[in-house]
Amino acid sequence: MNAIEVRGLNVRRDHFEMNNVSMEVPKGCVVGLVGRNGAGKTTLIEAIAGVTETGSGTITYDGMSIWENEKQIKQDLGVVFAEPWFNNMTSPRVLVESIYPWYPDFDFKYFVDNMQRMEIDANMTINQYSSGMLRKFLMIFVLARRPKTLILDEPTTGVDPVSRNEMLDLLYEFMQQEDHSILFSTHITSDLDKIADYIVMLEKGRVIMNESKEMLQSRYQYSGRGLPDIETIMLDIIGEGTLPNKGGR
């Protein structure tokens, strides 16, 4: 069973087109979404999250269409966009109090405990946060809603290495539940080296690679060296790498 399944998706936005994109997020797995700037990662994330108009194609969650089961799916789905969707002049505490009635499963103790763990003041206004503090807050906020599936668009951008590891720890903890799943777009491919099960690569609005990380690294491994990292493989796929052997490709 797939937590998310995309089939034949086409999106046109301004001068950008996404053509016949198909991919899936297997239940219980972390899927990393990679590609160059402008490849279509954010467009795909927004289409899956239901905030961008699509053309043809289908998107389902646990086999259900979001348009037919919107309330249930939105309760089970947690999304962190590249840019906050709320007024940054408010404080996290006020924000939580305002959304609490809409999300009865919101875990206030989890939120408070992890804000303290990450040393983030919930009484400050969000516009006072550094980029790293904002990213950590957004992840804690969405995890406190207790979703089953996470969609994360560049969640660790602008975050220092120590804080990134703390955020990855939160994702490790989230994935301890067998029915939890993550779709994670990032330019920081070292994060995916640590947590991804599958890698999907976009180029000019098309999927050019969709494979398990284990199979991918095995295929690109060459004699006398360890397993290549995701960045090395990406560069080789788009013709800018230096791998002398592509594992039989």
Short structural summary:
This protein has helices spanning 41-48, 70-76, 92-99, 108-117, 131-144, 161-174, 189-195, 213-220, 230-237; strands spanning 2-13, 16-26, 30-35, 58-61, 64-65, 77-80, 149-153, 181-185, 198-203, 206-212.
Distance between the termini: 30 Å
Overall pLDDT metric: 87
Structural class: alpha/beta
Helix-strand string: EEEHEEHEHHHEHEHEEHH
Shape: globular
Helical fraction equals 25-40%
Q: Any idea what the radius of gyration is?
A: 18 Å
Strand neighbour order, sheet with most strands: 6-7-8-3-9-10
The portion of residues forming beta strands comes to: 15-25%
What summary fits the major beta sheet? 6 strands, mixed
What is the number of E strands? 10
